[in-house]
Specification:
The complex is a heterodimer. By secondary structure, chain A is mainly alpha-helical. Chain A contains 13 helices and no strands. The longest helix of chain A is centred in the last third of the chain and has 30 residues. Helix content of chain B is 29%, strand content 25%. The longest helix of chain B has 16 residues. Chain B starts with a strand and ends with a helix. The chains are: A mainly alpha, B alpha/beta. Chains A and B meet through helix 1, helix 7, helix 8, helix 11 and helix 13 of A and helix 2 and helix 5 of B. Chain B: This is Metal ABC transporter ATP-binding protein.
Protein backbone atom coordinates (compact mmCIF):
# COMPACT_ATOMS: atom_id res chain seq x y z
CA UNK A 1 0.00 0.00 0.00
CA UNK A 2 1.10 3.57 -0.42
CA UNK A 3 -0.86 6.03 1.64
CA UNK A 4 0.97 9.01 0.30
CA UNK A 5 0.06 8.54 -3.35
CA UNK A 6 -2.92 10.74 -2.52
CA UNK A 7 -2.44 14.47 -2.40
CA UNK A 8 -4.89 14.88 0.46
CA UNK A 9 -2.84 12.50 2.59
CA UNK A 10 0.32 14.50 1.94
CA UNK A 11 -1.52 17.68 2.86
CA UNK A 12 -2.84 16.02 5.99
CA UNK A 13 0.66 14.96 6.99
CA UNK A 14 2.19 18.41 6.37
CA UNK A 15 -0.55 20.07 8.39
CA UNK A 16 -0.12 17.62 11.26
CA UNK A 17 3.66 17.94 11.35
CA UNK A 18 3.51 21.74 11.52
CA UNK A 19 1.04 21.62 14.40
CA UNK A 20 3.06 18.87 16.06
CA UNK A 21 6.05 21.21 16.19
CA UNK A 22 4.33 24.52 16.90
CA UNK A 23 1.85 23.46 19.59
CA UNK A 24 4.42 22.21 22.16
CA UNK A 25 6.76 25.13 21.36
CA UNK A 26 4.01 27.43 22.62
CA UNK A 27 2.64 25.01 25.18
CA UNK A 28 5.83 24.93 27.23
CA UNK A 29 5.32 28.59 28.20
CA UNK A 30 1.67 28.00 29.05
CA UNK A 31 2.61 25.03 31.25
CA UNK A 32 5.32 27.08 32.93
CA UNK A 33 2.71 29.72 33.70
CA UNK A 34 0.21 27.16 34.99
CA UNK A 35 -2.13 28.04 32.15
CA UNK A 36 -2.28 24.50 30.76
CA UNK A 37 -5.98 24.72 30.06
CA UNK A 38 -6.00 28.14 28.40
CA UNK A 39 -5.76 26.56 24.94
CA UNK A 40 -8.96 24.71 25.65
CA UNK A 41 -10.76 27.91 26.59
CA UNK A 42 -9.49 29.80 23.55
CA UNK A 43 -10.66 26.83 21.47
CA UNK A 44 -14.18 27.41 22.76
CA UNK A 45 -13.98 31.05 21.75
CA UNK A 46 -12.59 30.15 18.32
CA UNK A 47 -15.77 28.21 17.61
CA UNK A 48 -17.69 31.49 17.55
CA UNK A 49 -15.19 32.66 14.95
CA UNK A 50 -15.89 29.56 12.86
CA UNK A 51 -19.61 30.33 13.10
CA UNK A 52 -19.03 33.92 12.00
CA UNK A 53 -16.98 32.75 9.01
CA UNK A 54 -19.56 30.19 7.88
CA UNK A 55 -22.39 32.69 8.31
CA UNK A 56 -20.60 35.30 6.18
CA UNK A 57 -19.40 32.69 3.68
CA UNK A 58 -15.81 33.64 4.49
CA UNK A 59 -12.88 31.41 5.36
CA UNK A 60 -13.66 30.05 8.84
CA UNK A 61 -9.92 29.77 9.60
CA UNK A 62 -9.35 33.51 9.25
CA UNK A 63 -12.48 34.57 11.15
CA UNK A 64 -11.59 32.04 13.87
CA UNK A 65 -8.08 33.50 14.18
CA UNK A 66 -9.51 36.98 14.59
CA UNK A 67 -12.20 36.08 17.14
CA UNK A 68 -9.86 33.78 19.09
CA UNK A 69 -7.19 36.51 19.19
CA UNK A 70 -9.70 39.02 20.58
CA UNK A 71 -10.75 36.43 23.17
CA UNK A 72 -7.14 35.63 24.09
CA UNK A 73 -6.22 39.30 24.53
CA UNK A 74 -9.31 39.71 26.72
CA UNK A 75 -8.22 36.77 28.86
CA UNK A 76 -4.72 38.23 29.17
CA UNK A 77 -6.08 41.60 30.30
CA UNK A 78 -8.22 39.84 32.93
CA UNK A 79 -5.20 37.80 34.08
CA UNK A 80 -3.01 40.90 34.28
CA UNK A 81 -5.38 42.52 36.73
CA UNK A 82 -5.22 39.41 38.87
CA UNK A 83 -8.71 39.86 40.26
CA UNK A 84 -10.40 36.89 41.85
CA UNK A 85 -13.39 37.48 39.61
CA UNK A 86 -11.08 36.62 36.68
CA UNK A 87 -11.95 32.96 37.09
CA UNK A 88 -15.62 33.68 36.64
CA UNK A 89 -14.97 36.04 33.73
CA UNK A 90 -13.04 33.28 31.96
CA UNK A 91 -15.90 30.84 32.43
CA UNK A 92 -18.38 33.33 30.96
CA UNK A 93 -16.10 33.97 27.99
CA UNK A 94 -15.50 30.29 27.26
CA UNK A 95 -19.08 29.10 27.48
CA UNK A 96 -20.30 32.16 25.63
CA UNK A 97 -17.79 31.24 22.92
CA UNK A 98 -18.92 27.67 22.44
CA UNK A 99 -22.64 28.47 22.69
CA UNK A 100 -22.23 31.34 20.22
CA UNK A 101 -20.37 29.05 17.84
CA UNK A 102 -23.01 26.34 17.91
CA UNK A 103 -25.80 28.84 17.29
CA UNK A 104 -23.96 30.68 14.49
CA UNK A 105 -23.00 27.44 12.72
CA UNK A 106 -26.63 26.31 12.91
CA UNK A 107 -27.76 29.60 11.36
CA UNK A 108 -25.31 29.35 8.47
CA UNK A 109 -26.01 27.76 5.09
CA UNK A 110 -23.60 25.01 6.02
CA UNK A 111 -25.97 23.94 8.76
CA UNK A 112 -25.44 20.28 9.32
CA UNK A 113 -23.95 18.46 12.24
CA UNK A 114 -21.01 17.42 10.08
CA UNK A 115 -19.53 20.89 9.77
CA UNK A 116 -19.59 21.36 13.53
CA UNK A 117 -17.94 18.00 14.22
CA UNK A 118 -15.29 18.82 11.63
CA UNK A 119 -14.11 21.78 13.71
CA UNK A 120 -14.60 20.25 17.12
CA UNK A 121 -12.64 17.07 16.41
CA UNK A 122 -10.55 17.93 13.36
CA UNK A 123 -10.81 16.82 9.79
CA UNK A 124 -7.45 16.69 8.13
CA UNK A 125 -8.43 14.96 4.93
CA UNK A 126 -10.85 17.70 3.92
CA UNK A 127 -8.07 20.28 4.28
CA UNK A 128 -7.71 22.23 1.05
CA UNK A 129 -4.39 23.40 -0.44
CA UNK A 130 -5.34 26.96 0.58
CA UNK A 131 -5.90 25.81 4.15
CA UNK A 132 -2.48 24.15 4.18
CA UNK A 133 -0.89 27.37 2.95
CA UNK A 134 -2.53 29.32 5.79
CA UNK A 135 -1.54 26.64 8.33
CA UNK A 136 2.06 26.58 7.06
CA UNK A 137 2.53 30.36 7.16
CA UNK A 138 0.90 30.87 10.56
CA UNK A 139 2.51 27.76 12.06
CA UNK A 140 5.94 28.89 10.93
CA UNK A 141 5.33 32.35 12.39
CA UNK A 142 4.40 30.80 15.75
CA UNK A 143 7.48 28.58 15.70
CA UNK A 144 9.86 31.42 14.87
CA UNK A 145 8.36 33.69 17.55
CA UNK A 146 8.57 31.01 20.23
CA UNK A 147 12.15 30.08 19.40
CA UNK A 148 13.55 33.59 18.80
CA UNK A 149 11.97 35.08 21.92
CA UNK A 150 12.70 32.06 24.13
CA UNK A 151 15.00 33.91 26.59
CA UNK A 152 12.54 36.78 26.99
CA UNK A 153 9.45 34.58 27.20
CA UNK A 154 11.23 32.29 29.64
CA UNK A 155 12.09 35.28 31.82
CA UNK A 156 8.51 36.58 31.79
CA UNK A 157 6.94 33.17 32.50
CA UNK A 158 9.53 32.31 35.15
CA UNK A 159 9.45 35.56 37.14
CA UNK A 160 7.22 38.31 35.78
CA UNK A 161 8.26 40.91 38.37
CA UNK A 162 11.92 40.37 37.68
CA UNK A 163 11.24 40.72 33.95
CA UNK A 164 9.45 44.00 34.66
CA UNK A 165 12.39 45.35 36.68
CA UNK A 166 14.71 44.26 33.84
CA UNK A 167 12.81 46.72 31.66
CA UNK A 168 11.44 44.00 29.36
CA UNK A 169 8.25 44.87 27.46
CA UNK A 170 6.30 42.46 29.64
CA UNK A 171 2.89 43.54 28.47
CA UNK A 172 3.81 43.29 24.78
CA UNK A 173 5.31 39.84 25.34
CA UNK A 174 2.19 38.70 27.20
CA UNK A 175 -0.07 39.97 24.44
CA UNK A 176 2.13 38.27 21.86
CA UNK A 177 1.70 35.01 23.79
CA UNK A 178 -2.06 35.52 23.85
CA UNK A 179 -2.27 36.13 20.12
CA UNK A 180 0.09 33.22 19.41
CA UNK A 181 -2.11 30.95 21.50
CA UNK A 182 -5.13 32.00 19.47
CA UNK A 183 -3.30 31.40 16.19
CA UNK A 184 -2.06 27.98 17.27
CA UNK A 185 -5.49 26.92 18.46
CA UNK A 186 -7.06 27.97 15.19
CA UNK A 187 -4.60 26.30 12.87
CA UNK A 188 -4.68 23.17 15.00
CA UNK A 189 -8.45 22.93 14.78
CA UNK A 190 -8.15 21.26 11.37
CA UNK A 191 -5.75 18.64 12.73
CA UNK A 192 -6.90 17.72 16.20
CA UNK A 193 -10.04 19.81 16.54
CA UNK A 194 -10.88 22.59 18.96
CA UNK A 195 -11.72 20.23 21.81
CA UNK A 196 -8.35 18.46 21.67
CA UNK A 197 -6.09 21.41 20.81
CA UNK A 198 -4.84 21.84 24.34
CA UNK A 199 -3.70 18.21 24.43
CA UNK A 200 -1.06 18.79 21.75
CA UNK A 201 0.21 21.90 23.57
CA UNK A 202 0.46 20.25 26.97
CA UNK A 203 1.01 16.49 26.72
CA UNK A 204 4.37 16.58 24.85
CA UNK A 205 5.66 19.07 27.45
CA UNK A 206 4.39 16.93 30.33
CA UNK A 207 6.10 13.89 28.76
CA UNK A 208 9.39 15.67 28.07
CA UNK A 209 9.79 17.16 31.54
CA UNK A 210 9.78 13.72 33.14
CA UNK A 211 13.35 13.22 31.93
CA UNK A 212 14.80 16.65 31.12
CA UNK A 213 16.83 18.95 33.36
CA UNK A 214 16.69 22.29 31.56
CA UNK A 215 14.16 24.52 29.82
CA UNK A 216 15.77 24.43 26.39
CA UNK A 217 16.13 20.66 26.38
CA UNK A 218 12.50 20.33 27.52
CA UNK A 219 11.42 22.50 24.61
CA UNK A 220 13.39 20.49 22.06
CA UNK A 221 12.19 17.16 23.49
CA UNK A 222 8.56 18.32 23.60
CA UNK A 223 8.69 19.50 19.99
CA UNK A 224 10.19 16.15 18.94
CA UNK A 225 7.47 14.23 20.79
CA UNK A 226 4.79 16.47 19.24
CA UNK A 227 6.22 15.97 15.75
CA UNK A 228 6.41 12.18 16.11
CA UNK A 229 2.94 11.87 17.67
CA UNK A 230 1.33 14.06 14.99
CA UNK A 231 3.06 12.23 12.11
CA UNK A 232 2.30 8.80 13.53
CA UNK A 233 -1.25 9.92 14.30
CA UNK A 234 -1.96 10.63 10.62
CA UNK A 235 -0.48 7.32 9.46
CA UNK A 236 -2.10 5.18 12.14
CA UNK A 237 -5.48 6.85 11.72
CA UNK A 238 -5.41 6.19 7.97
CA UNK A 239 -4.46 2.54 8.51
CA UNK A 240 -6.88 1.90 11.35
CA UNK A 241 -9.60 4.19 10.01
CA UNK A 242 -9.83 6.25 13.21
CA UNK A 243 -10.17 10.03 13.59
CA UNK A 244 -6.64 11.54 13.20
CA UNK A 245 -6.96 14.12 15.99
CA UNK A 246 -8.00 11.71 18.70
CA UNK A 247 -5.47 9.14 17.45
CA UNK A 248 -2.66 11.70 17.71
CA UNK A 249 -3.67 12.61 21.25
CA UNK A 250 -3.82 8.93 22.31
CA UNK A 251 -0.36 8.38 20.84
CA UNK A 252 1.03 11.42 22.68
CA UNK A 253 -0.49 10.11 25.91
CA UNK A 254 1.10 6.72 25.24
CA UNK A 255 4.49 8.44 24.90
CA UNK A 256 3.85 10.26 28.18
CA UNK A 257 3.02 7.00 30.00
CA UNK A 258 6.02 5.19 28.46
CA UNK A 259 8.48 7.96 29.39
CA UNK A 260 7.09 8.31 32.90
CA UNK A 261 7.32 4.54 33.46
CA UNK A 262 10.84 4.39 32.00
CA UNK A 263 12.00 7.30 34.18
CA UNK A 264 10.53 5.67 37.29
CA UNK A 265 12.14 2.34 36.42
CA UNK A 266 15.51 4.01 35.87
CA UNK A 267 15.34 5.73 39.26
CA UNK A 268 14.44 2.43 40.92
CA UNK A 269 17.30 0.57 39.20
CA UNK A 270 19.80 3.24 40.13
CA UNK A 271 18.79 3.13 43.74
CA UNK A 272 19.16 -0.67 43.82
CA UNK A 273 22.43 -0.71 41.89
CA UNK A 274 24.26 1.40 44.48
CA UNK A 275 22.78 0.99 47.95
CA UNK A 276 25.80 2.25 49.94
CA UNK A 277 25.56 5.65 48.33
CA UNK A 278 27.56 8.46 49.85
CA UNK A 279 25.51 10.75 52.03
CA UNK A 280 24.17 13.77 50.21
CA UNK A 281 24.96 17.22 51.56
CA UNK A 282 22.29 18.13 54.10
CA UNK A 283 20.96 21.09 52.13
CA UNK A 284 19.99 18.80 49.23
CA UNK A 285 18.12 16.50 51.59
CA UNK A 286 16.28 19.51 52.97
CA UNK A 287 15.22 20.55 49.52
CA UNK A 288 13.91 17.07 48.73
CA UNK A 289 11.86 17.10 51.88
CA UNK A 290 10.44 20.48 50.89
CA UNK A 291 9.40 19.29 47.46
CA UNK A 292 7.32 16.52 48.99
CA UNK B 1 24.82 62.17 42.44
CA UNK B 2 22.15 60.21 44.24
CA UNK B 3 21.45 56.73 42.89
CA UNK B 4 18.06 56.48 44.57
CA UNK B 5 16.03 59.47 45.68
CA UNK B 6 12.64 59.04 47.30
CA UNK B 7 10.74 62.26 48.11
CA UNK B 8 7.61 62.29 50.29
CA UNK B 9 6.49 58.97 48.90
CA UNK B 10 3.15 57.47 49.92
CA UNK B 11 1.77 54.12 48.83
CA UNK B 12 -1.67 52.69 49.42
CA UNK B 13 -3.61 49.61 48.42
CA UNK B 14 -7.38 49.64 48.32
CA UNK B 15 -7.62 52.88 50.26
CA UNK B 16 -5.30 51.73 53.05
CA UNK B 17 -2.04 53.66 53.18
CA UNK B 18 1.04 51.49 53.78
CA UNK B 19 3.79 54.08 53.40
CA UNK B 20 3.32 57.67 54.60
CA UNK B 21 5.55 60.50 53.49
CA UNK B 22 8.83 58.57 53.19
CA UNK B 23 12.00 60.32 52.03
CA UNK B 24 15.26 58.52 51.43
CA UNK B 25 18.44 59.24 49.49
CA UNK B 26 21.08 56.67 48.58
CA UNK B 27 24.38 57.94 47.18
CA UNK B 28 26.65 56.11 44.76
CA UNK B 29 28.76 53.45 46.48
CA UNK B 30 26.63 53.41 49.62
CA UNK B 31 25.27 50.24 51.24
CA UNK B 32 21.94 50.94 52.89
CA UNK B 33 19.93 48.43 54.89
CA UNK B 34 16.20 48.97 55.27
CA UNK B 35 15.16 47.35 58.52
CA UNK B 36 11.82 46.81 60.12
CA UNK B 37 9.38 44.27 61.47
CA UNK B 38 7.14 42.17 59.25
CA UNK B 39 4.41 44.39 57.87
CA UNK B 40 6.32 47.61 58.57
CA UNK B 41 6.27 48.52 54.88
CA UNK B 42 9.97 47.94 54.18
CA UNK B 43 9.31 45.56 51.29
CA UNK B 44 6.71 47.92 49.84
CA UNK B 45 9.31 50.70 49.95
CA UNK B 46 11.84 48.81 47.80
CA UNK B 47 9.11 47.54 45.51
CA UNK B 48 8.01 51.12 44.90
CA UNK B 49 11.63 52.12 44.21
CA UNK B 50 11.68 49.39 41.55
CA UNK B 51 8.41 50.58 40.03
CA UNK B 52 6.51 47.43 40.98
CA UNK B 53 4.17 49.36 43.25
CA UNK B 54 2.72 52.70 42.11
CA UNK B 55 3.06 55.76 44.35
CA UNK B 56 -0.03 57.61 45.43
CA UNK B 57 2.02 60.70 46.36
CA UNK B 58 5.58 61.90 46.06
CA UNK B 59 8.30 61.11 43.55
CA UNK B 60 11.16 58.71 43.03
CA UNK B 61 14.30 59.25 40.99
CA UNK B 62 16.78 56.62 39.86
CA UNK B 63 20.26 57.82 38.81
CA UNK B 64 18.89 61.34 38.63
CA UNK B 65 16.04 60.46 36.27
CA UNK B 66 12.37 60.46 37.25
CA UNK B 67 11.36 56.81 37.64
CA UNK B 68 8.57 57.11 35.07
CA UNK B 69 11.09 58.19 32.46
CA UNK B 70 13.84 55.85 33.60
CA UNK B 71 14.69 53.32 30.86
CA UNK B 72 18.21 52.22 31.76
CA UNK B 73 17.04 49.21 33.80
CA UNK B 74 20.25 47.32 33.05
CA UNK B 75 21.83 49.51 35.76
CA UNK B 76 19.48 48.01 38.36
CA UNK B 77 19.83 44.42 39.61
CA UNK B 78 16.86 43.08 41.55
CA UNK B 79 17.08 40.10 43.89
CA UNK B 80 13.59 39.03 45.00
CA UNK B 81 12.82 37.24 48.24
CA UNK B 82 12.66 33.86 46.58
CA UNK B 83 12.56 32.03 43.31
CA UNK B 84 9.09 32.13 41.77
CA UNK B 85 6.97 29.10 42.54
CA UNK B 86 8.18 26.24 40.38
CA UNK B 87 5.76 25.16 37.70
CA UNK B 88 7.21 21.77 36.90
CA UNK B 89 8.94 22.81 33.68
CA UNK B 90 12.59 22.28 34.57
CA UNK B 91 15.12 25.08 34.22
CA UNK B 92 18.84 24.91 34.89
CA UNK B 93 20.73 27.28 37.17
CA UNK B 94 22.50 28.63 34.08
CA UNK B 95 19.21 29.35 32.32
CA UNK B 96 17.80 31.27 35.28
CA UNK B 97 20.99 33.33 35.63
CA UNK B 98 21.02 34.01 31.88
CA UNK B 99 17.72 35.93 32.33
CA UNK B 100 19.84 38.56 34.06
CA UNK B 101 21.50 39.42 30.75
CA UNK B 102 18.25 40.39 29.00
CA UNK B 103 18.21 43.93 30.39
CA UNK B 104 21.62 44.52 28.78
CA UNK B 105 21.20 42.86 25.43
CA UNK B 106 17.46 43.36 24.81
CA UNK B 107 14.96 40.78 23.65
CA UNK B 108 15.93 40.63 19.99
CA UNK B 109 19.60 39.79 20.22
CA UNK B 110 20.50 36.14 20.92
CA UNK B 111 22.92 35.38 23.75
CA UNK B 112 26.55 35.68 22.71
CA UNK B 113 29.97 34.91 24.17
CA UNK B 114 29.85 38.03 26.37
CA UNK B 115 26.57 36.88 27.90
CA UNK B 116 27.89 33.38 28.50
CA UNK B 117 31.03 34.73 30.17
CA UNK B 118 28.97 37.06 32.39
CA UNK B 119 26.74 34.17 33.52
CA UNK B 120 29.77 32.05 34.37
CA UNK B 121 31.49 34.90 36.20
CA UNK B 122 28.37 35.61 38.27
CA UNK B 123 27.96 31.94 39.21
CA UNK B 124 31.63 31.70 40.13
CA UNK B 125 31.21 34.79 42.30
CA UNK B 126 28.46 33.13 44.39
CA UNK B 127 30.22 29.74 44.42
CA UNK B 128 27.71 27.83 42.31
CA UNK B 129 29.59 27.40 39.04
CA UNK B 130 29.65 23.62 39.51
CA UNK B 131 25.83 23.56 39.59
CA UNK B 132 25.34 25.52 36.34
CA UNK B 133 23.66 22.60 34.53
CA UNK B 134 21.60 21.34 37.47
CA UNK B 135 17.86 22.02 37.67
CA UNK B 136 17.25 24.89 40.14
CA UNK B 137 14.70 22.79 42.01
CA UNK B 138 17.47 20.43 43.19
CA UNK B 139 19.21 23.31 45.02
CA UNK B 140 18.74 24.18 48.68
CA UNK B 141 16.91 27.37 49.64
CA UNK B 142 20.20 29.17 50.24
CA UNK B 143 21.63 28.01 46.93
CA UNK B 144 18.49 29.16 45.11
CA UNK B 145 18.90 32.55 46.76
CA UNK B 146 22.52 32.65 45.55
CA UNK B 147 21.26 31.79 42.05
CA UNK B 148 19.04 34.86 42.21
CA UNK B 149 21.89 37.15 43.25
CA UNK B 150 23.98 35.66 40.42
CA UNK B 151 21.12 36.49 38.03
CA UNK B 152 21.21 40.12 39.18
CA UNK B 153 25.04 40.30 39.06
CA UNK B 154 25.16 38.79 35.55
CA UNK B 155 23.58 41.99 34.21
CA UNK B 156 26.52 44.00 35.62
CA UNK B 157 24.29 46.51 37.43
CA UNK B 158 25.40 49.66 39.26
CA UNK B 159 22.66 49.30 41.89
CA UNK B 160 21.62 46.09 43.61
CA UNK B 161 18.24 45.96 45.32
CA UNK B 162 17.71 42.93 47.53
CA UNK B 163 14.45 42.02 49.26
CA UNK B 164 15.23 39.98 52.40
CA UNK B 165 18.04 38.08 50.73
CA UNK B 166 19.15 36.10 53.76
CA UNK B 167 15.79 35.12 55.28
CA UNK B 168 15.94 31.45 56.20
CA UNK B 169 19.25 30.93 54.39
CA UNK B 170 21.86 28.46 55.72
CA UNK B 171 25.13 29.78 57.17
CA UNK B 172 27.32 28.69 54.23
CA UNK B 173 25.09 30.51 51.76
CA UNK B 174 24.97 33.62 53.97
CA UNK B 175 28.78 33.76 53.91
CA UNK B 176 28.86 33.27 50.13
CA UNK B 177 26.25 36.00 49.89
CA UNK B 178 28.20 38.45 52.05
CA UNK B 179 31.33 37.74 50.00
CA UNK B 180 29.60 38.43 46.68
CA UNK B 181 28.01 41.64 48.00
CA UNK B 182 31.36 42.79 49.43
CA UNK B 183 33.08 42.35 46.07
CA UNK B 184 30.22 44.18 44.36
CA UNK B 185 30.63 47.11 46.75
CA UNK B 186 34.41 47.18 46.32
CA UNK B 187 33.79 47.47 42.57
CA UNK B 188 31.91 50.72 43.25
CA UNK B 189 28.40 49.27 43.37
CA UNK B 190 25.52 50.70 45.38
CA UNK B 191 23.36 48.35 47.47
CA UNK B 192 19.90 48.75 48.98
CA UNK B 193 18.79 45.72 50.93
CA UNK B 194 15.75 44.93 53.00
CA UNK B 195 16.48 42.80 56.02
CA UNK B 196 14.98 41.57 59.21
CA UNK B 197 18.37 40.83 60.66
CA UNK B 198 21.77 41.66 59.22
CA UNK B 199 23.86 38.66 60.34
CA UNK B 200 27.07 38.27 58.31
CA UNK B 201 26.06 41.25 56.12
CA UNK B 202 26.44 43.65 59.04
CA UNK B 203 30.07 44.74 58.37
CA UNK B 204 29.06 45.84 54.86
CA UNK B 205 26.31 48.22 55.92
CA UNK B 206 27.07 51.96 55.87
CA UNK B 207 23.66 53.12 57.01
CA UNK B 208 20.51 51.58 58.37
CA UNK B 209 17.02 52.96 57.78
CA UNK B 210 14.42 51.58 60.15
CA UNK B 211 10.87 51.59 58.84
CA UNK B 212 8.08 51.40 61.37
CA UNK B 213 4.37 51.57 60.51
CA UNK B 214 5.08 53.01 57.11
CA UNK B 215 7.41 55.79 58.27
CA UNK B 216 11.17 56.16 58.67
CA UNK B 217 11.63 55.75 62.42
CA UNK B 218 15.41 55.87 62.57
CA UNK B 219 18.33 56.53 60.26
CA UNK B 220 21.99 55.99 61.15
CA UNK B 221 24.68 53.39 61.71
CA UNK B 222 23.37 49.81 61.84
CA UNK B 223 22.12 48.87 65.33
CA UNK B 224 24.13 46.45 67.43
CA UNK B 225 22.51 43.05 67.88
CA UNK B 226 21.00 42.71 71.36
CA UNK B 227 19.37 40.08 73.54
CA UNK B 228 19.48 36.54 72.20
CA UNK B 229 20.26 37.96 68.74
CA UNK B 230 23.73 38.80 70.02
CA UNK B 231 24.50 35.21 71.07
CA UNK B 232 27.38 33.72 69.11
CA UNK B 233 26.01 31.22 66.63
CA UNK B 234 22.50 32.65 66.91
CA UNK B 235 20.56 31.42 63.91
CA UNK B 236 17.81 33.89 63.19
CA UNK B 237 15.03 32.53 61.06
CA UNK B 238 11.91 34.14 59.71
CA UNK B 239 8.61 32.66 60.70
CA UNK B 240 7.24 33.30 57.21
CA UNK B 241 10.27 32.08 55.33
CA UNK B 242 10.70 28.59 56.75
CA UNK B 243 8.56 25.50 56.51
CA UNK B 244 6.60 25.01 59.73
CA UNK B 245 8.15 22.36 61.95
CA UNK B 246 6.09 19.15 62.13
CA UNK B 247 5.35 19.68 65.82
CA UNK B 248 3.66 23.02 65.06
CA UNK B 249 1.51 21.45 62.36
CA UNK B 250 0.12 18.84 64.73
CA UNK B 251 -1.23 21.27 67.30
CA UNK B 252 -4.30 22.64 65.43
CA UNK B 253 -5.62 19.10 64.87
CA UNK B 254 -5.58 18.58 68.63
CA UNK B 255 -7.53 21.78 69.06
CA UNK B 256 -10.13 20.69 66.55
CA UNK B 257 -10.82 17.48 68.46
CA UNK B 258 -11.13 19.50 71.65
CA UNK B 259 -14.05 21.42 70.14
Amino acid sequence: MDLFQYDFMIRALIGALIIGLAAPALGIYLVQRRLSLIGDGIGHVALTGVGVGLLLNQSPVISAVIVAAIGAVGVELIRERGRTSGDLALALLFYGGIAGGVVLVALSNDANSNSLVQYLFGSLITTSPQDIAVIAVLGLAVLVAMVVFRPALFAVCNDEEYARVSGLPVRALNLMMAVTTAVTVTIAMRTVGLLLVSALMVIPVAAAQQVTRGFRTTMVAAMTIGLVAAGAGVVVSAEADTPPGATTVILALAVFVAITAAAAARRLLRRRAQPPREIEPPDVVLQEAEVR
Amino acid sequence: MSVVSVRHAAVGYDGREILHDISLTVSAGEVVAILGANGSGKSTLVRSILGLVPLSHGRIELFGTAQRKFRDWARVGYVPQRLGAGSGVPATVGEVVASGRLARRGIFRPAGAVDKAAVQAALTDVGLIDRINDPVTTLSGGQQQRTLIARALAGKPDLLVLDEPTAGVDAASQEAFAGALGRFEEGGGTIVLVAHELGPLRPLIDRAVVVHEGRVAHEGPPPEPFGHHADPGHDHVHPHAVQPAPGICVAPADRITAN
